[in-house]
Write a structure and sequence with these properties.
Helices cover about 40% and strands about 20% of the residues. The chain is of the alpha+beta class. It has one domain. Helix 2 crosses helix 3. It starts with a strand and ends in a 13-residue tail after the last helix.
Length: about 90
């Protein structure tokens, strides 16, 4: 299963209409899990960008509004775990 995230930073696209017109020229970021795509969308938003669309092989389709609403509800659980204990490696 793959999920494709289309996002922009800066003034590449400032409206949904501009995004639709330029989507064919943008290269989506591809993730194996929806949570990973949402995690990246959250990072993009915090960096001043816009996560425009997530599409999945399973017919998932989340537009900008759906992504924002999901991140409002689940943003905290999608944050990377900064205080996670380091893994153990055998020598």
């Amino acid at each position: 299963m793959t999920y494709r995230l289309w996002w922009t930073v800066g003034y590449v696209c400032t409206s949904e209409k501009e995004f639709r017109a330029t989507k064919h020229r943008l290269v989506p970021a591809v993730y194996e899990m929806l949570d990973d795509a949402l995690r990246r969308a959250n990072q993009v938003g915090r960096a001043g960008g816009v996560a425009w669309l997530i599409e999945g092989d399973d017919k998932t389709r989340m537009d900008r509004t759906s992504i924002s609403n999901t991140l409002l509800k689940r943003g905290g659980e999608l944050e990377p775990q900064a205080n996670a204990p380091p893994g153990r490696f055998s020598n």
